[in-house]
Amino acid sequence: MSKDPARFVVAACAANGFAFIIPNTSPFVIGGLVDAFPMSEAQAGLILTVELIAMGAAALLVSPFMRVIPQRSMALIGALLAAAANACVVFKVADGYTQLILFRVVAGIGTGLLLAVANAAIASSLSPERLYGVALMLGWFVAAALGPVMAKAAELAHYTGAYGVWMGLALLVVPLVLGLDQRPAKAQSKWVRGSSAVPGSVHLAGIALVGVAMMAYFAFVERMSLQVGFSLNQTGLLFAGISVAGALGAGLAGTQGGRFGLVWPLVVGTAVHAIAIVAAVGARNQWMFGVAASLEGISYMYLLTYQFGLAATLDHSGRWAAAAGGAMIGSTGFGPYIGGALITYFGSQALTWLVMITAALGAAAFLWVGSRLSKKTMPEPCPD
Fold first, then answer.
1. Which of these, 19, 268, 292, 349, has the minimum number of CB atoms within 10 Å of its CB?
2. If you average pLDDT over residues 82-98, what whole number do you get?
3. Number of Cα atoms under 13 Å in the Cβ half of residue 168
4. Mean pLDDT across 199-209
5. What's the first-to-final CA gap in the chain, in angstroms?
6. How many CA within 13 A on the CB side of residue 43?
């Protein structure tokens, strides 16, 4: 467990958890949009893609300035922006397709600011990889509870019901982020030799590759579950199970910490994650799909914890950690559109080729970054 102040841990977990609840529960938004409008999966996926890209872009743009940005204020601005934009959609201020996309961009920017602050704050904590594990685990337990809620909301009010849940969560986050420090903690480490720019950039590329394939699959899990025979309510329970599995994966990574290093757990998790998606896409019955989807949840949250932990190692001031969150969310933003296009034109089996290629390239990127982290270039404590 983290040794940081409780108020700080709660605030960082709340900000981080809300940011990740958006992609984690997005399949219900996709389903609600398809059911409410005469649009294809690709068109619905584009709406989510725009929001996630805005999230990622916002986090990436502010990441170089995390040493000087007032983090508590930025988190409050982000939460309020997300709540206001979701409210505009729920109360039909945005009723047309173009207006809907505009307000989803605003919501994405707000959530991206929250994500950047959360990742930078955790990176400056006493044990980043453990606190990432705790934050992701708690976020996925909340997502598990939200599975049936999102399913019911989408059933009753389609996309406005799903966005209404997101609006309520954003409002709950507002008072919680007051526990963040206004100024980031003093950097705990630095690179002894050379710059972290190239390893950091390669690491972001690896995160992006894995993220694109994950979301190309995950955005359409609700559709796939219906195809193998689950009802919408059963799908909500399935999502709860996947979220619990994801929480266990993050908890395992948080408990394990750096006992086996940061790189090899990340590479193994990437391989298992790809195998799980291939199995889920190829499943022909409910049992096979449920097992494969749960394994995907466990492995992704496990590897995600190490992605952020490795980013924190590159720079404990939080710049690469904030950028890692932006790269992950921004890349997943392309996933729904790519996944929708592949399914529309080639069928769901096309997703297996995407995930195998991106997993191989992503694992290679992580191994290269690990090779740069030799004893001569590992971060050492800064002098007081």
1. 349
2. 85
3. 10
4. 94
5. 26
6. 12
Q: What's the whole-number mean pLDDT along residues 249-267?
A: 87
pLDDT at site 187: 45
Task: Provide the phi-psi class of 309: left if phi over 0, else alpha when psi is between -120 and 50, else beta.
Answer: alpha
Residue 184 binned pLDDT confidence (cut-offs 50, 70, 90): low
For the chain, percent of residues with pLDDT exceeding 90: 35
- Domain region containing 284: 6-376
The CATH code of the domain that includes 50 is 1.20.1250.20
Reading the block at residue 186, the tokens are 């003093």
Q: Which residues contact 349 (CB under 8 A, 6 or more apart)?
A: 281, 282
Residue 383 maps to a domain: no
Distance CA 174, CA 232 (A): 31
Instruction: Compute the half-sphere exposure of residue 8: CA atoms within 13 Å on the CB side of its CA.
Output: 21
194 dihedral zone (left: phi>0; alpha: psi -120 to 50; beta): left
Query: How many structural domains compose the chain?
Result: 1
Helical residues (DSSP H) of the chain, grouped into ranges: 6-24, 26-36, 41-62, 71-90, 97-123, 128-176, 197-218, 221-227, 232-256, 263-282, 286-314, 319-346, 350-372
Q: What is the mean pLDDT of the chain?
A: 84
Which residues have a Cβ under 8 Å from the Cβ of 318 and sit 6 or more positions away? 66, 67, 119, 120, 121, 122, 123, 124, 184, 312
